[in-house]
């Protein structure tokens, strides 16, 4: 019996979108257990729409049907969190060429810091390639309908907030 393959799916998830959910669920085709990991730094928290606790709670609710997806939060370096939980695979979504430069730089830097780490880049379903958490925040805060971009646990919180 081989060891279970554990991967981290890190991000700000402010809030979780259907694009994030799509990537997480797709990754279960080759990962045994996925830890959706909310990154937070004390200095950035006041710029967030949702607190870490709210983001963890909405992600937990969104994946309540999927026992292979866990939710965690971490501060500090991603590589340190990966070492702590014993994961050497990190999943990231790539929507368009505009994501590439930042992701490529981060992947190479993370590898410098943790040579055993493998970053796996996944494309979401076509209908989510234009979707971003920042646009969802903006649309919701201006009173727009975000029901096609986020799942019910996220939508409820956005409605309560705006
Ligand atoms: O959803 P985001 O904001 O694009 O996610 C970026 C994230 C959280 C994955 C990245 O900022 C990160 O890994 N932060 C943790 C701190 C860290 O390790 N920084 C060094 C990156 S090379």
Structure explained in plain terms:
This protein has 162 residues and is of the alpha/beta class. The chain is built from six helices and five strands. A five-stranded parallel β-sheet has the order 3-2-1-4-5, with helices on both faces. Strand 1, helix 1 and strand 2 form a beta-alpha-beta unit. Helix 2 runs antiparallel to helix 6. It starts with 5 loop residues before the first strand and ends with a helix. The model has no long low-confidence stretch (mean pLDDT 95). 4'-phosphopantetheine binds next to strand 1 and helix 4.
Question: What is the first-to-last residue Cα distance?
Answer: 50 Å
Count of DSSP-assigned helices: 6
Q: What value does the Rg take, in angstroms?
A: 15 Å
The bound ligands are: 4'-phosphopantetheine
**Total strand segments:** 5
Overall outline: globular
Instruction: Classify the beta-strand content into a percent band.
Output: 15-25%
Low-confidence stretches: none
Main sheet, how many strands, which sense, barrel?
Answer: 5 strands, parallel
Helix content: 40-55%
- What is the average of the pLDDT values? 95
| Secondary-structure content class | alpha/beta
Spatial strand sequence of the major β-sheet = 3-2-1-4-5
Query: What's the order of the H and E elements?
Result: EHEHEHEHEHH
